[in-house]
Protein backbone atom coordinates (compact mmCIF):
# COMPACT_ATOMS: atom_id res chain seq x y z
CA UNK A 1 0.00 0.00 0.00
CA UNK A 2 2.88 2.35 0.76
CA UNK A 3 4.38 1.71 -2.69
CA UNK A 4 0.96 2.20 -4.26
CA UNK A 5 0.59 5.63 -2.69
CA UNK A 6 4.12 6.59 -3.83
CA UNK A 7 3.32 5.59 -7.40
CA UNK A 8 0.10 7.60 -7.37
CA UNK A 9 1.86 10.73 -6.13
CA UNK A 10 4.51 10.24 -8.81
CA UNK A 11 1.86 9.85 -11.51
CA UNK A 12 0.07 13.05 -10.50
CA UNK A 13 3.35 15.00 -10.41
CA UNK A 14 4.35 13.64 -13.82
CA UNK A 15 0.91 14.48 -15.21
CA UNK A 16 1.15 18.08 -14.03
CA UNK A 17 4.62 18.59 -15.51
CA UNK A 18 3.61 17.13 -18.88
CA UNK A 19 0.47 19.29 -18.86
CA UNK A 20 2.55 22.43 -18.30
CA UNK A 21 4.95 21.92 -21.22
CA UNK A 22 2.60 22.28 -24.23
CA UNK A 23 0.76 25.08 -22.46
CA UNK A 24 3.86 27.24 -22.07
CA UNK A 25 4.86 26.41 -25.67
CA UNK A 26 1.46 27.42 -27.00
CA UNK A 27 1.84 30.77 -25.26
CA UNK A 28 5.06 31.38 -27.23
CA UNK A 29 3.58 30.28 -30.57
CA UNK A 30 0.02 31.54 -30.42
CA UNK A 31 -0.03 34.05 -27.57
CA UNK A 32 -2.63 32.03 -25.64
CA UNK A 33 -2.17 32.40 -21.86
CA UNK A 34 -0.68 29.37 -20.12
CA UNK A 35 -3.58 28.98 -17.70
CA UNK A 36 -6.09 28.84 -20.55
CA UNK A 37 -4.09 26.17 -22.38
CA UNK A 38 -3.79 24.08 -19.22
CA UNK A 39 -7.56 24.05 -18.74
CA UNK A 40 -8.22 23.33 -22.43
CA UNK A 41 -5.76 20.44 -22.55
CA UNK A 42 -7.22 19.03 -19.35
CA UNK A 43 -10.70 18.94 -20.86
CA UNK A 44 -9.53 17.25 -24.07
CA UNK A 45 -7.56 14.47 -22.38
CA UNK A 46 -10.38 13.88 -19.90
CA UNK A 47 -12.97 13.40 -22.62
CA UNK A 48 -11.21 10.71 -24.66
CA UNK A 49 -9.76 8.92 -21.62
CA UNK A 50 -13.17 8.67 -19.96
CA UNK A 51 -15.05 7.64 -23.11
CA UNK A 52 -12.55 5.37 -24.80
CA UNK A 53 -10.83 3.64 -21.87
CA UNK A 54 -7.53 1.80 -22.16
CA UNK A 55 -8.08 0.80 -25.79
CA UNK A 56 -8.47 4.43 -26.83
CA UNK A 57 -5.34 5.30 -24.87
CA UNK A 58 -3.23 2.70 -26.70
CA UNK A 59 -4.44 3.51 -30.22
CA UNK A 60 -4.21 7.25 -29.68
CA UNK A 61 -0.64 6.68 -28.45
CA UNK A 62 0.22 4.94 -31.71
CA UNK A 63 -1.16 7.73 -33.89
CA UNK A 64 0.33 10.43 -31.67
CA UNK A 65 3.77 8.77 -31.79
CA UNK A 66 3.73 8.97 -35.61
CA UNK A 67 2.74 12.64 -35.54
CA UNK A 68 5.40 13.36 -32.91
CA UNK A 69 8.19 11.82 -35.00
CA UNK A 70 7.05 13.70 -38.12
CA UNK A 71 7.22 16.98 -36.21
CA UNK A 72 10.67 16.20 -34.77
CA UNK A 73 12.18 15.30 -38.15
CA UNK A 74 10.64 18.36 -39.83
CA UNK A 75 12.15 20.57 -37.16
CA UNK A 76 15.58 18.92 -37.36
CA UNK A 77 15.78 19.08 -41.16
CA UNK A 78 14.58 22.66 -41.58
CA UNK A 79 16.47 23.88 -38.51
CA UNK A 80 19.74 22.35 -39.73
CA UNK A 81 19.31 23.98 -43.14
CA UNK A 82 18.63 27.38 -41.57
CA UNK A 83 21.67 26.95 -39.29
CA UNK A 84 24.01 26.52 -42.25
CA UNK A 85 24.03 22.76 -42.70
CA UNK A 86 25.21 19.79 -40.69
CA UNK A 87 28.89 20.79 -40.61
CA UNK A 88 28.30 24.37 -39.50
CA UNK A 89 25.74 23.27 -36.90
CA UNK A 90 28.17 20.79 -35.40
CA UNK A 91 31.02 23.32 -35.44
CA UNK A 92 28.87 25.89 -33.65
CA UNK A 93 27.73 23.64 -30.81
CA UNK A 94 31.22 22.14 -30.41
CA UNK A 95 33.11 25.43 -30.38
CA UNK A 96 30.70 26.97 -27.85
CA UNK A 97 31.14 24.10 -25.38
CA UNK A 98 27.75 22.44 -25.87
CA UNK A 99 29.29 19.01 -26.50
CA UNK A 100 30.34 18.43 -22.91
CA UNK A 101 29.33 14.86 -22.17
CA UNK A 102 32.80 13.72 -21.13
CA UNK A 103 33.20 15.89 -18.06
CA UNK A 104 34.93 13.31 -15.86
CA UNK A 105 35.02 15.39 -12.67
CA UNK A 106 33.43 13.20 -9.92
CA UNK A 107 32.15 16.24 -7.99
CA UNK A 108 28.50 15.35 -7.17
CA UNK A 109 27.52 19.02 -7.06
CA UNK A 110 28.26 19.53 -10.75
CA UNK A 111 24.97 20.10 -12.53
CA UNK A 112 25.85 17.50 -15.15
CA UNK A 113 28.88 15.27 -15.65
CA UNK A 114 29.64 12.00 -17.39
CA UNK A 115 28.96 10.08 -14.17
CA UNK A 116 25.64 11.71 -13.36
CA UNK A 117 24.40 11.59 -16.95
CA UNK A 118 25.24 7.90 -17.41
CA UNK A 119 24.92 6.28 -13.99
CA UNK A 120 22.52 8.70 -12.33
CA UNK A 121 20.15 8.57 -15.29
CA UNK A 122 20.40 4.77 -15.52
CA UNK A 123 19.42 4.24 -11.89
CA UNK A 124 16.63 6.79 -12.18
CA UNK A 125 15.45 5.12 -15.38
CA UNK A 126 14.70 1.90 -13.48
CA UNK A 127 11.59 3.65 -12.15
CA UNK A 128 9.97 3.43 -15.58
CA UNK A 129 9.84 -0.35 -15.34
CA UNK A 130 7.95 -0.25 -12.04
CA UNK A 131 5.24 2.16 -13.11
CA UNK A 132 1.67 1.15 -13.75
CA UNK A 133 1.79 2.58 -17.27
CA UNK A 134 4.43 -0.03 -18.12
CA UNK A 135 2.66 -2.87 -16.35
CA UNK A 136 -0.59 -2.28 -18.23
CA UNK A 137 1.31 -2.84 -21.47
CA UNK A 138 2.92 -5.97 -20.06
CA UNK A 139 -0.54 -7.32 -19.27
CA UNK A 140 -1.58 -6.58 -22.86
CA UNK A 141 1.06 -8.94 -24.31
CA UNK A 142 0.18 -12.62 -24.83
CA UNK A 143 3.40 -14.33 -23.62
CA UNK A 144 6.54 -13.68 -21.60
CA UNK A 145 8.62 -13.86 -24.77
CA UNK A 146 6.58 -11.12 -26.42
CA UNK A 147 6.95 -9.02 -23.28
CA UNK A 148 10.74 -9.29 -23.44
CA UNK A 149 10.70 -8.36 -27.12
CA UNK A 150 8.50 -5.37 -26.32
CA UNK A 151 10.97 -4.18 -23.70
CA UNK A 152 13.91 -4.48 -26.10
CA UNK A 153 12.10 -2.48 -28.77
CA UNK A 154 11.02 0.08 -26.17
CA UNK A 155 14.56 0.51 -24.81
CA UNK A 156 16.13 1.23 -28.19
CA UNK A 157 13.19 3.41 -29.23
CA UNK A 158 13.50 5.45 -26.03
CA UNK A 159 17.22 6.02 -26.63
CA UNK A 160 16.51 7.01 -30.23
CA UNK A 161 13.83 9.56 -29.32
CA UNK A 162 16.01 10.94 -26.51
CA UNK A 163 18.85 11.40 -28.99
CA UNK A 164 16.51 13.26 -31.34
CA UNK A 165 15.56 15.57 -28.48
CA UNK A 166 19.23 16.30 -27.80
CA UNK A 167 19.75 17.09 -31.48
CA UNK A 168 16.79 19.47 -31.35
CA UNK A 169 18.51 21.43 -28.59
CA UNK A 170 21.77 21.56 -30.55
CA UNK A 171 20.05 22.75 -33.74
CA UNK A 172 18.08 25.33 -31.76
CA UNK A 173 21.24 26.92 -30.33
CA UNK A 174 23.02 26.84 -33.70
CA UNK A 175 20.06 28.57 -35.32
CA UNK A 176 19.86 31.45 -32.84
CA UNK A 177 23.65 31.76 -32.94
CA UNK A 178 23.56 32.16 -36.73
CA UNK A 179 20.69 34.65 -36.49
CA UNK A 180 22.74 36.71 -34.06
CA UNK A 181 20.00 36.97 -31.48
CA UNK A 182 19.66 35.10 -28.20
CA UNK A 183 15.93 35.30 -27.31
CA UNK A 184 16.56 35.06 -23.56
CA UNK A 185 19.28 37.70 -23.35
CA UNK A 186 17.33 40.06 -25.62
CA UNK A 187 14.19 39.56 -23.49
CA UNK A 188 12.21 38.32 -26.46
CA UNK A 189 11.38 35.29 -24.31
CA UNK A 190 11.09 35.06 -20.56
CA UNK A 191 11.00 31.28 -20.25
CA UNK A 192 13.67 28.92 -21.57
CA UNK A 193 11.04 26.25 -22.18
CA UNK A 194 9.76 28.44 -25.06
CA UNK A 195 12.99 28.41 -27.09
CA UNK A 196 12.06 25.56 -29.43
CA UNK A 197 8.55 26.93 -30.17
CA UNK A 198 10.04 30.34 -30.93
CA UNK A 199 12.47 28.77 -33.39
CA UNK A 200 9.62 26.89 -35.07
CA UNK A 201 7.74 30.14 -35.66
CA UNK A 202 10.86 31.68 -37.20
CA UNK A 203 11.96 28.89 -39.54
CA UNK A 204 8.46 27.96 -40.74
CA UNK A 205 7.08 31.50 -41.10
CA UNK A 206 6.84 31.10 -44.89
CA UNK A 207 5.73 27.43 -44.83
CA UNK A 208 1.98 26.93 -44.41
CA UNK A 209 0.82 24.31 -41.89
CA UNK A 210 4.29 23.53 -40.50
CA UNK A 211 3.87 25.45 -37.22
CA UNK A 212 0.64 23.51 -36.85
CA UNK A 213 2.48 20.23 -37.41
CA UNK A 214 4.90 21.16 -34.64
CA UNK A 215 2.05 21.97 -32.27
CA UNK A 216 0.37 18.70 -33.21
CA UNK A 217 3.60 16.83 -32.47
CA UNK A 218 4.03 18.61 -29.14
CA UNK A 219 0.45 18.02 -28.09
CA UNK A 220 0.61 14.39 -29.24
CA UNK A 221 3.59 13.72 -27.00
CA UNK A 222 1.84 15.40 -24.08
CA UNK A 223 -1.64 13.92 -24.56
CA UNK A 224 -0.36 10.37 -25.02
CA UNK A 225 1.52 10.57 -21.74
CA UNK A 226 -1.34 12.19 -19.86
CA UNK A 227 -3.95 9.71 -21.04
CA UNK A 228 -1.71 6.78 -20.09
CA UNK A 229 -1.14 8.27 -16.64
CA UNK A 230 -4.84 8.87 -16.01
CA UNK A 231 -5.71 5.34 -17.11
CA UNK A 232 -3.04 3.80 -14.89
CA UNK A 233 -3.87 5.97 -11.87
CA UNK A 234 -7.53 4.99 -12.01
CA UNK A 235 -6.59 1.30 -12.38
CA UNK A 236 -4.30 1.44 -9.32
CA UNK A 237 -6.91 3.33 -7.31
CA UNK A 238 -9.58 0.77 -8.14
CA UNK A 239 -7.52 -2.41 -7.77
CA UNK A 240 -5.38 -1.51 -4.75
CA UNK A 241 -7.40 1.08 -2.82
CA UNK A 242 -11.09 0.52 -3.43
CA UNK A 243 -11.59 -3.13 -4.43
CA UNK A 244 -9.74 -4.84 -1.52
CA UNK A 245 -11.47 -2.67 1.10
CA UNK A 246 -15.08 -2.64 -0.08
CA UNK A 247 -17.86 -5.15 -0.56
CA UNK A 248 -18.23 -6.75 -3.99
CA UNK A 249 -20.03 -4.43 -6.39
CA UNK A 250 -21.33 -4.50 -9.93
CA UNK A 251 -19.06 -3.90 -12.89
CA UNK A 252 -21.01 -0.76 -13.80
CA UNK A 253 -20.44 0.76 -10.37
CA UNK A 254 -16.76 -0.12 -10.60
CA UNK A 255 -16.50 1.69 -13.95
CA UNK A 256 -18.21 4.76 -12.49
CA UNK A 257 -15.76 4.84 -9.56
CA UNK A 258 -12.82 4.50 -11.96
CA UNK A 259 -14.15 7.36 -14.11
CA UNK A 260 -14.59 9.58 -11.07
CA UNK A 261 -10.99 8.76 -10.11
CA UNK A 262 -9.82 9.82 -13.58
CA UNK A 263 -11.56 13.17 -13.15
CA UNK A 264 -10.16 13.76 -9.64
CA UNK A 265 -6.60 12.87 -10.63
CA UNK A 266 -6.84 15.14 -13.67
CA UNK A 267 -7.93 18.09 -11.52
CA UNK A 268 -5.10 17.49 -9.02
CA UNK A 269 -2.67 17.24 -11.94
CA UNK A 270 -3.95 20.59 -13.20
CA UNK A 271 -3.14 22.15 -9.84
CA UNK A 272 0.39 20.68 -10.06
CA UNK A 273 0.76 22.21 -13.54
CA UNK A 274 -0.02 25.67 -12.16
CA UNK A 275 2.52 25.14 -9.36
CA UNK A 276 5.20 23.99 -11.83
CA UNK A 277 4.58 27.08 -13.97
CA UNK A 278 5.85 29.18 -11.06
CA UNK A 279 9.21 27.35 -10.80
CA UNK A 280 12.10 28.63 -12.90
CA UNK A 281 14.32 26.33 -14.93
CA UNK A 282 14.11 23.70 -17.68
CA UNK A 283 11.03 21.51 -17.34
CA UNK A 284 13.07 18.27 -17.25
CA UNK A 285 15.16 19.58 -14.36
CA UNK A 286 12.05 20.72 -12.48
CA UNK A 287 10.45 17.30 -12.90
CA UNK A 288 13.56 15.43 -11.77
CA UNK A 289 13.82 17.56 -8.64
CA UNK A 290 10.14 17.29 -7.70
CA UNK A 291 9.81 13.56 -8.43
CA UNK A 292 13.14 12.09 -7.26
CA UNK A 293 11.96 11.59 -3.67
CA UNK A 294 9.13 9.41 -5.01
CA UNK A 295 10.90 7.52 -7.79
CA UNK A 296 13.98 6.83 -5.67
CA UNK A 297 11.92 5.32 -2.86
CA UNK A 298 9.65 3.31 -5.15
CA UNK A 299 12.54 1.93 -7.22
CA UNK A 300 14.50 1.20 -4.06
CA UNK A 301 11.66 -0.86 -2.59
CA UNK A 302 11.47 -3.08 -5.67
CA UNK A 303 15.25 -3.43 -5.96
CA UNK A 304 15.47 -4.22 -2.24
CA UNK A 305 13.06 -7.10 -2.74
CA UNK A 306 14.95 -8.31 -5.81
CA UNK A 307 18.42 -8.31 -4.28
CA UNK A 308 17.94 -8.92 -0.56
CA UNK A 309 16.52 -12.32 0.47
CA UNK A 310 15.91 -11.22 4.06
CA UNK A 311 14.10 -7.99 3.14
CA UNK A 312 10.62 -7.64 4.65
CA UNK A 313 7.76 -5.17 4.87
CA UNK A 314 9.22 -3.38 7.89
CA UNK A 315 12.51 -2.72 6.13
CA UNK A 316 10.75 -1.65 2.91
CA UNK A 317 8.48 0.86 4.67
CA UNK A 318 11.16 2.35 6.93
CA UNK A 319 13.68 2.50 4.10
CA UNK A 320 11.11 4.03 1.76
CA UNK A 321 10.06 6.64 4.30
CA UNK A 322 13.67 7.62 5.02
CA UNK A 323 14.28 7.96 1.29
CA UNK A 324 11.19 10.10 0.70
CA UNK A 325 11.92 12.42 3.62
CA UNK A 326 15.66 12.81 3.02
CA UNK A 327 15.56 13.27 -0.76
CA UNK A 328 12.42 15.40 -0.45
CA UNK A 329 14.26 17.64 2.02
CA UNK A 330 17.15 18.06 -0.42
CA UNK A 331 14.77 18.75 -3.31
CA UNK A 332 12.93 21.43 -1.35
CA UNK A 333 16.24 22.99 -0.34
CA UNK A 334 17.34 23.12 -3.98
CA UNK A 335 14.26 25.14 -4.85
CA UNK A 336 14.04 27.61 -1.94
CA UNK A 337 17.56 27.99 -0.53
CA UNK A 338 19.35 31.14 -1.76
CA UNK A 339 22.80 29.69 -1.04
CA UNK A 340 22.65 26.74 -3.45
CA UNK A 341 25.69 26.49 -5.70
CA UNK A 342 25.30 28.58 -8.85
CA UNK A 343 26.70 26.76 -11.84
CA UNK A 344 28.55 28.82 -14.45
CA UNK A 345 26.49 29.10 -17.60
CA UNK A 346 27.86 28.68 -21.08
CA UNK A 347 28.19 31.79 -23.22
CA UNK A 348 24.83 32.72 -24.78
CA UNK A 349 24.26 33.28 -28.47
CA UNK A 350 25.17 36.78 -29.75
CA UNK A 351 22.63 39.60 -29.61
CA UNK A 352 23.88 42.03 -32.28
CA UNK A 353 20.93 41.32 -34.58
CA UNK A 354 17.99 41.38 -32.19
CA UNK A 355 14.69 43.18 -32.16
CA UNK A 356 14.38 45.91 -29.59
CA UNK A 357 13.21 44.46 -26.26
CA UNK A 358 10.59 47.24 -26.19
CA UNK A 359 9.16 46.33 -29.58
CA UNK A 360 5.58 45.16 -29.45
CA UNK A 361 4.84 42.05 -31.45
CA UNK A 362 3.05 38.71 -31.22
CA UNK A 363 4.76 35.56 -32.39
CA UNK A 364 1.67 34.21 -34.05
CA UNK A 365 0.73 37.29 -36.05
CA UNK A 366 3.83 39.37 -36.77
CA UNK A 367 6.56 37.53 -38.61
CA UNK A 368 9.76 39.42 -39.03
CA UNK A 369 13.15 39.36 -40.64
CA UNK A 370 15.60 39.88 -37.80
CA UNK A 371 18.28 41.17 -40.19
CA UNK A 372 16.21 44.38 -40.56
CA UNK A 373 16.86 45.35 -36.97
CA UNK A 374 20.19 46.02 -35.30
CA UNK A 375 20.34 47.16 -31.69
CA UNK A 376 22.78 47.07 -28.84
CA UNK A 377 21.88 44.63 -26.11
CA UNK A 378 24.01 44.70 -23.02
CA UNK A 379 25.35 41.25 -22.23
CA UNK A 380 24.52 40.33 -18.62
CA UNK A 381 27.37 40.27 -16.16
CA UNK A 382 29.08 36.96 -15.62
CA UNK A 383 27.64 35.22 -12.60
CA UNK A 384 30.00 34.83 -9.68
CA UNK A 385 30.34 31.18 -8.74
CA UNK A 386 30.50 30.83 -4.97
CA UNK A 387 31.14 27.71 -2.94
CA UNK A 388 28.15 26.69 -0.81
CA UNK A 389 28.51 26.24 2.93
CA UNK A 390 26.65 24.29 5.57
CA UNK A 391 23.45 22.61 4.43
CA UNK A 392 23.72 24.34 1.07
CA UNK A 393 26.43 21.82 0.19
CA UNK A 394 23.81 19.10 0.52
CA UNK A 395 21.23 21.13 -1.41
CA UNK A 396 23.77 21.62 -4.20
CA UNK A 397 23.94 17.91 -5.08
CA UNK A 398 23.12 17.53 -8.76
CA UNK A 399 19.49 16.81 -9.58
CA UNK A 400 20.77 13.89 -11.67
CA UNK A 401 21.94 12.09 -8.51
CA UNK A 402 18.77 12.51 -6.43
CA UNK A 403 17.00 9.40 -7.71
CA UNK A 404 20.09 7.23 -7.28
CA UNK A 405 20.55 8.63 -3.76
CA UNK A 406 16.97 7.64 -2.92
CA UNK A 407 17.51 4.07 -4.12
CA UNK A 408 20.73 3.78 -2.10
CA UNK A 409 19.02 4.98 1.08
CA UNK A 410 16.28 2.36 0.71
CA UNK A 411 18.79 -0.43 0.10
CA UNK A 412 20.96 0.44 3.11
CA UNK A 413 18.22 1.38 5.59
CA UNK A 414 15.84 -1.34 4.43
CA UNK A 415 18.48 -4.08 4.71
CA UNK A 416 19.46 -3.03 8.25
CA UNK A 417 15.90 -2.62 9.54
CA UNK A 418 14.80 -5.91 7.98
CA UNK A 419 17.19 -7.68 10.35
CA UNK A 420 15.01 -6.58 13.27
CA UNK A 421 12.14 -8.76 12.11
CA UNK A 422 12.51 -12.39 11.15
CA UNK A 423 11.59 -13.13 7.56
CA UNK A 424 10.33 -16.60 6.54
CA UNK A 425 12.11 -18.30 3.61
CA UNK A 426 11.37 -16.47 0.37
CA UNK A 427 10.27 -18.08 -2.86
CA UNK A 428 13.55 -18.17 -4.85
CA UNK A 429 11.70 -17.02 -7.98
CA UNK A 430 11.13 -13.64 -6.33
CA UNK A 431 14.70 -12.48 -5.90
CA UNK A 432 17.88 -12.25 -7.96
CA UNK A 433 20.92 -14.21 -6.61
CA UNK A 434 23.47 -11.50 -7.34
CA UNK A 435 26.26 -13.19 -5.38
CA UNK A 436 25.74 -16.51 -7.19
CA UNK A 437 25.82 -14.78 -10.56
CA UNK A 438 28.64 -12.29 -9.98
CA UNK A 439 30.81 -14.04 -7.40
CA UNK A 440 30.52 -17.60 -8.66
CA UNK A 441 34.21 -18.14 -7.89
CA UNK A 442 33.58 -17.85 -4.14
CA UNK A 443 33.10 -21.06 -2.13
CA UNK A 444 29.57 -22.22 -1.45
CA UNK A 445 29.94 -21.51 2.26
CA UNK A 446 30.57 -17.81 1.50
CA UNK A 447 27.74 -17.52 -1.01
CA UNK A 448 25.26 -19.10 1.40
CA UNK A 449 25.53 -16.07 3.66
CA UNK A 450 23.94 -13.91 0.97
CA UNK A 451 20.82 -16.03 0.55
CA UNK A 452 18.10 -17.16 2.86
CA UNK A 453 17.90 -20.76 1.71
CA UNK A 454 20.36 -23.20 0.21
CA UNK A 455 18.08 -25.07 -2.14
CA UNK A 456 18.12 -22.39 -4.81
CA UNK A 457 17.13 -23.84 -8.20
CA UNK A 458 19.58 -24.15 -11.05
CA UNK A 459 20.42 -20.72 -12.36
CA UNK A 460 20.76 -21.87 -15.94
CA UNK A 461 17.14 -22.86 -16.28
CA UNK A 462 14.26 -20.52 -17.04
CA UNK A 463 11.92 -19.95 -14.12
CA UNK A 464 8.99 -19.47 -16.44
CA UNK A 465 7.89 -20.93 -19.74
CA UNK A 466 8.61 -18.37 -22.46
CA UNK A 467 5.39 -19.19 -24.26
CA UNK A 468 3.20 -19.39 -21.17
CA UNK A 469 0.36 -16.83 -21.19
CA UNK A 470 1.15 -13.70 -19.20
CA UNK A 471 -2.03 -13.99 -17.13
CA UNK A 472 -0.75 -17.32 -15.76
CA UNK A 473 2.46 -15.71 -14.56
CA UNK A 474 0.91 -12.94 -12.46
CA UNK A 475 -1.85 -12.67 -9.88
CA UNK A 476 -5.25 -11.43 -10.85
CA UNK A 477 -5.82 -7.69 -11.16
CA UNK A 478 -4.34 -4.87 -13.14
CA UNK A 479 -1.97 -3.37 -10.61
CA UNK A 480 1.71 -4.22 -10.48
CA UNK A 481 1.82 -3.01 -6.91
Write a structural description:
The chain is built from 15 helices and no strands. The protein is an all-alpha fold and 481 residues long. Helix 2 crosses helix 8 (210-242).
Task: Write the SSE topology.
Blueprint: H1 2-30, H2 34-82, H3 86-95, H4 114-129, H5 132-139, H6 144-179, H7 195-203, H8 210-242, H9 251-276, H10 283-307, H11 313-336, H12 391-395, H13 402-418, H14 434-438, H15 444-448
Helix pairs in contact: 1-2, 1-7, 1-8, 1-9, 1-10, 2-6, 2-8, 2-9, 3-6, 4-13, 8-9, 10-11, 10-13, 11-13
Number of β-strand runs: 0
Give the SSE order as H and E letters. HHHHHHHHHHHHHHH
Spans of at least 5 consecutive residues with low confidence: 357-382, 453-464, 474-478
Task: Please give the largest β-sheet.
Answer: none
Class inferred from helices and paired strands:
mainly alpha
Count of alpha/pi helices = 15
Give the distance, in angstroms, between the N- and C-terminal Cα atoms.
8 Å
**Overall pLDDT metric:** 79
In which range does the helix fraction lie? 55-70%
Beta content: under 5%
Shape: globular
What is the rounded Rg? 25 Å
Can you describe this structure in just a few lines?
This protein has 15 helices and no strands. The protein is 62% helix and 0% strand.
Task: Considering the chains and any ligands shown, give keywords for the structure.
globular; mainly alpha
Amino acid sequence: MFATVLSMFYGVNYFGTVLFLPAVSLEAVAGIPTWMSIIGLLIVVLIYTLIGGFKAVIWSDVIQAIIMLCGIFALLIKGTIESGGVKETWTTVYDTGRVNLFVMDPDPTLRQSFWSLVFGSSVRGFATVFMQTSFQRIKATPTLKSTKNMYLVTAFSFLFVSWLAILEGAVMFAYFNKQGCDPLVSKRLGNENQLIPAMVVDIFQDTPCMPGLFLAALFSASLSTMSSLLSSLSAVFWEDIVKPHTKPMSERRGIIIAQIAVFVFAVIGGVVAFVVSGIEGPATQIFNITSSSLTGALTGIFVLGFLNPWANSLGAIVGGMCSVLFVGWISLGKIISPGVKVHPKLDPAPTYNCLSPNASFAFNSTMYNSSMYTIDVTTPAVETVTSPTGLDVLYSVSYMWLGALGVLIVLITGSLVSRLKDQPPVDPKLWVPVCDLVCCCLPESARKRFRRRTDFPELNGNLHDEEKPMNDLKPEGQSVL
